[in-house]
Amino acid sequence: MLKTRIYTVLVLLPLLIAALFYLPANAWALVLAPLALVSAWEWGALAGWRPAGRLLYVCSITAGGALLWYFGYGGAPGAYVVATASFGVAFLFWLVVAPLWLVKGWRIRSPLILAVTGAVLLLPPWLALIQLQGQPGVLLMLMAIVWISDTAAYFCGKRWGRHKLAETISPGKTWEGVFGAMAGVAIYYVLLSAGGATGHGALQGIMGFGVFLLLTVLGIEGDLFESWIKRTANVKDSGTVFPGHGGVLDRIDALTASMPAAALLLNGMA
User: Into how many domains does the chain fold?
Assistant: First the structure.
């Protein structure tokens, strides 16, 4: 399974980086759109909807994405306010609602609540990735926080993991893995700073280090939240799109939680 994951990453990562650096914003948005729509389809399955309901939800997310693109990025009056509001809603969800959801162990099956939750999980991160692509080096640096955190947590948890983080949600995750993720990201930040790569105003010094750790914590929370939704739906993976990695939601869960916050913080402290 580990070899399959590595081979999948070796194929997909160069394509993602090439698209990130060389595609214009419109094309980059179109590259990301299928990932969001497949995620919407997978979310519908986790919500327990029938194929017709899942298809309707994909169409709704498509329409919502088009509206958010136009009013939050495409040149409409007040686009900055709309984009910031969408990032703020997502940030508040991960700061308040998601932690309560996990701590209380809510097993929510209301179609309306799950539909709104799915929209919050998918649309603001999509817009954030489009907006942040204006500085592709910064966006790659931010996405790498998630990848480094996930990798460090996996290996540290496998080697030293003893104390369960949330056994009823994801039995394999440990506090040692969390500390390993934070240590890995801290080393990553120090190396970037030493190389002068953290030149963006919001990413320098203690403030920048805090942003990196915040995005790490949010990424872990996003992973836990999707794990809980899968456990509620009684499935192991959200899908089978990526060999060795499961579905699209399984791969972007940490990004859905961290990227709106990254866009909000970078916009606010530019």
Answer: 1
